[in-house]
Design goal:
Helices cover 18% and strands 39% of the residues. 42% of the residues are buried. It is built from six helices and 15 strands. It folds into two domains: 154 residues, 2,3-Dihydroxybiphenyl 1,2-Dioxygenase, domain 1 (Roll); 111 residues, 2,3-Dihydroxybiphenyl 1,2-Dioxygenase, domain 1 (Roll).
């Protein structure tokens, strides 16, 4: 049985100050609730988020709102480093995905339900998800899991998909790995697709989006987080000129090189964020 990964669903950026982070990404607030273990009761979680929704994929800003509540290891991760700590890959069948991951040698322990309330033009609504977590020892680079949206229309609302910078899709996630050959074999088993590339990179092309593994020779900048860590994303924009105008208008430090715009990670909670043409 092979894992069937549908897309690069979203990344989660850990922030110590959610309001400050939201000023860069500008999206509504929501609190998390869900099961701690597969089949467990739904309980309030320690985290809250704000999400920048794109036509394809999204960027989640996540912070500890109530440290007395369960957070997994997210509190410790955010305390150690602001930046991307979550990578979610889409799946159509969580049960089959969990079984395939176990068959592939991963510590997959079943489907965990998650929910959060969101505002809609019609009033508050519950967004619901089924998550297939993978044992932390199997994915040292971050909290990397598979996810099925049970209420997609609750969060992909048309009025949330229009952005001044022209952003339309989460195209790539870049992960710094300690041992490229080992990590490539592991991600092939987890994603169900073969990696391609030479030198210090391996690219996994999904039905939508790409996951790129890099070693220390292929980092976006020398000051990127040390391996193992998720270091960056590429966001597709309908217009590089529009993206640059929006960045300049907000006074966001960036550099344009050809058909790429790199945003200073000091502006994005440590994320190496690149804009590229859609």
């Amino acid at each position: 049985m092979a894992v069937r990964t549908t897309d690069l669903d979203h990344v989660g950026v850990g922030a110590r100050d959610l309001d400050a982070a939201a000023r860069a990404y500008e999206r509504p607030f929501a609190r998390h609730a869900g099961a701690v273990e597969p089949g467990g009761p739904t309980v309030q979680r320690a985290t809250g988020n704000r999400c920048a929704m794109l036509k394809a994929g999204y960027i989640e800003l996540i912070a500890i709102i109530d440290p007395k509540l369960p957070s997994g290891d997210m509190a410790a991760r955010i305390a150690a480093r602001e930046g991307i700590h979550i990578v979610a890959f889409g799946c159509d069948d969580p049960g089959a995905t969990n079984a395939a991951l176990k068959e592939a040698g991963f510590g997959a322990r079943g489907t965990v339900y998650l929910e959060r309330m969101v505002d809609t033009p019609q009033g508050p609504r519950m967004a619901k998800f089924d998550r297939v977590p993978v044992a932390a020892s199997d994915v040292p680079e971050g909290v990397i899991f598979h996810l099925k949206h049970l209420t997609r229309d609750a969060i992909w609302q048309p009025q949330l998909l229009k952005h001044a910078n022209g952003a339309v899709a989460l195209d790539e996630v870049v992960i710094h790995v300690a041992d490229l050959a080992e990590a490539a074999r592991r991600f092939e088993r987890q994603l169900g697709v073969l990696g391609a590339g030479n030198g210090g990179t391996r690219t996994f092309t999904l039905p939508r989006g790409r996951c790129i593994l890099v070693d220390s020779t292929a980092l976006p900048r020398a000051d990127a987080p040390k391996a193992p860590a998720v270091v960056g994303i590429t966001v597709a924009t309908s217009s590089l000129d529009q993206a640059e105008t929006a960045l300049k208008g907000k006074g966001v430090a960036h550099a344009r090189n050809g058909d790429r715009i790199q945003v200073d990670p000091k502006e994005t909670c440590g994320v190496f964020l690149t804009f590229a043409p859609a």
